[in-house]
């Protein structure tokens, strides 16, 4: 494969030199036919993450069917997702607060792709949901269900749909999805 | 810089070498003249190679020198010259080679998969999150708060891809219409295929010199007169995504240093970060080059075209030239350099320019990096 003579740019003191833009693109055909060498490898890295002080308690709350937040008594914000310290006042938070399991859609998207960019069989509605009982603007990421994607609106009021108690494991997915409160 | 392409035969190290060698050649310098090297490259997960800074070291010309890899996500490309600048400004070095490299193509089946690992492993990854989600969520929020239409946003993709027709290294130059964008395949509504920049391999490099040496090296130096950067909280779902406050802070830091009080009047043109078309508008507003919600109007009126009053992304941007992350930011700095020296050829903006700005953005909607350059 030869180099492409892709162009030039002037350089030093206005003296125009012909400079090639280096690089040898590999075409989709060369990639498919493997007509150039590749080295392929798969990793299988396994991790076990500690959940930490704040998230451990949050996940415990989810298992019990509750959304928990934390309160900082200095800025008086009620924060969710909960954290061990207030990043603004830079001090430990003061107390745990049980929030409501309802919220307001701050923004949303209809996703047609999986996380490896492959197409989903069915589109998924994802949203940032401001949780009621927390300070304004305190949203979490989650998915919406029981709603046509075309009916979703910013400002829509939604409620958590919990998995049955015996299926809850202490994970964000213990909330199966949020569904609109209003009659659609 | 190298060509920007979806997949390149060269390794990252080889691409870094090509770009670094070209930068040294155009400055009339050799590696021995370089006091320090700064390299930028985005997540290691693309390459599957940790210690990427060291993997690229020899290609960037950095061995047996003070060498640093810097990383602030997608903001890295413009952070590379910022870090190189502080080497020079502090008096630690007279000549610094600044290299941005990205090889996104190794990860299978798609580079997007690497972005999964930037999300919270307890609260976000279990939901199947992708980087595309947060762009879509941010775009929707921006459209909602400022009443911006998808048509207005599409105009940015049309402009940048057309500008890229004149960039010899461009990956996706094209003449397209607003309708093409609107009809392109939905990925994460409201984001569609043509709203998005491609994934790319590529490298780009620039040389920074102290004032005294710069005057010896060239009669037409370009000066860095302001730098700024800022990172917002990682609790991205707690922020209003309609406006990039961190970018305003980064811009104000740079404007203060460059003694700029009215950026809209005093910045002649800008290369703002456009991995998605709406981001150009969002960033123009964060940079105070347009009022909140006003950037779509400027775009509609042609103000941001190459022959407009405030040309934005005359290079063709990430949407047209391509988005090898850290290299894309350095490409923007190189474009400001070429424009200020009147060397941008067919891409040269119509109005005379004395001061330009390059900006990049990154991580979870939270990093702003800004460089102001003057001739």
From TrEMBL, chain A:
InterPro entries: ChsH2_C, ChsH2_Znr, NA-bd_OB-fold, Thioester_dehydratase-like. This is DNA-binding protein. One of its GO terms (molecular function) is DNA binding. Keywords: DNA-binding. Pfam families: OB_ChsH2_C, zf-ChsH2. It comes from the Archaea. Residues 60-91 form the ChsH2 rubredoxin-like zinc ribbon domain. SUPFAM superfamilies: Nucleic acid-binding proteins. Residues 96-163 form the ChsH2 C-terminal OB-fold domain.
